[in-house]
Amino acid sequence: MTSERPTPIAGNIHVGDVIESHDSEKSSALEIPDAYPPQTTKPIDMPPDGGYGWVCVASVFVINFHTWGLNSSYGVFLSHYLTFDTYPGATSLEYAFVGGLSISTALLTSPISTIVCRRYGTQVALSIGIVFETAGLLGASWATRIWQLFLSQGVSFGVGMGFLFIASVGVIPQWFSKKRSFANSIGTSGSGIGGLAYSLAVNRIIQTLGLDWAFRILAIVSCVMNVLATIVIRDRNKAVEAIQNAFHLPLLKQVEFLLLVGWGIFSELGYVVLLFSLVNYARSVGLTATQGSVVGAMLNLGQGIGRPFIGYFSDAAGRINIAGGCTFLAGLFCLLIWIFAKSYGVLIFFALTGGAVAGTFWTVIGPVGAEVVGVALLPSALSMTWVILVLPTSFSEPIGLQLRRSSGNIYLDAQLFAGFMYLGGATCVLFLRAWKIAEIERQAAVSREQREQEIRDNDAVKNDVPSVRRQMSRTASVKTATKGLWSWQRV
Length: 491
Hints:
InterPro entries: MFS, MFS_trans_sf, Proton-linked_MCT. This is MFS transporter-like protein. GO terms for molecular function: transmembrane transporter activity. Keywords: Membrane, Transmembrane, Transmembrane helix. By secondary structure, the chain is mostly helical.
């Protein structure tokens, strides 16, 4: 039996070729899914809520201890300058500017520090801060004129504190979610504990070794401890895809961000007056220099003890709720306790209770900022906030000293100023809370719209947030915002 060749079809093409071609087409068709794999959604980063994050909390604690804590002792320096006229020809207003200048310079460096963090990493920014802070303290030890003190204890120390603070402030929120406020409050409590230690130490060192050696000892101690903290701290910028731009200008168009900044402005106008004036106020009512330094130390102790509690309850009762409530209490304590505190015991009581809530802004600005703008935009939002706070922190203490009277209760106007500034900050948080509640209700409306769309079409689930927002009438939005002013929710 002879084998038959396949029947020719159209020239050189055979039936077998057609079958093979058809099979290859089917094979190719089957291989299409491999050539075009299905797109996968990148998993959402979930902070570990612990682990190495607690090492970073300890590092931030140490950095705050030896930056803001050290700066908190300026009240002792100020009292010494005013009492002994340390720098010939300097006025009380110029002395007041030194303390405010260190804070405002620290905040003013935030754009540069943010850029350095983005390009070279957190450790590099921290190292730059250590160099400037150490140089500032050493320079102050040789200062003989007020302008030299401006450049050393004011500008150079402020630049160093700014780099250290800005580079570390966003680290803890990256490591925690449910425990974010509590962990952040432990880190920020370092400034209170540091203020306690440094206020007592500075007064003692000045009395025994003199002003020059006080600066030199502070330079050595702070340098060593900040170096150790820098070695072990780690950020999660890549994991959270942090947008580390110095400025994100679209935030200025968002009402919620402006309310956040307003809270900071009013809070700092009150906080700086309280922080730097309390020691000298104690001297003005007849207490000794040692008793005044103890009062200042108790204010910082109150901050060190109060901040972890503020953070803990922020996670439990709502970060914005606690921020507004504690800011209101700070104003209330200034108006109802500080004004009438004339004795050593009452001043100690005020320092502890007022100190517990005085620095609420610094305790929860990171977690509250994350609630408002999100973790990714947080570095940029904080950078812009620090720059805006330069003016209020620069002029707060000079305003406080200018408000002093010539006789009687010389600090009464300054005390009223501090109290009402805190109340203004609490008002901003109240409206921020109303915005957050309205935002939660809008998100709930979007979720309901999505569920309804899923029911109508199981094959396509649309997530058109703008269209849902357009469906909400302006009247409904106003009603929702007004409702948020008085309704209780955990926000």
